[in-house]
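tool_call: predict_structure(chain=1)
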Amino acid sequence: MYRSIGLIEVAGMTTAISSVDAMVKGAYVEVVNIERIGSGLITIIISGDLASVQAAVEVGIEAASSHGEVFGFKVIPRPSESLYQLYDPEQAGENNE
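tool_result:
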């Protein structure tokens, strides 16, 4: 089984950094990637246990909303190995429990 994944899509790097800062301070999660996807949109990808990811996404949305715009978010409780490899191929094999 793989660690849970959380995603938040925001507008602007300042909004993204504010969101990431709040998430890592508010819950025990790791930042997997911060992707610029074009037109100023940025997707933040985190991982950790389900409760921590859910808490971090909530805190991240709140922080991002106060600095900019949140376009979407998702928590994936049990991602398949192939999905995890898209975002973090180096760690995919190490996250089996």
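agent: The helical segments are 13-26, 50-67, 81-87. Proceeding to next step.
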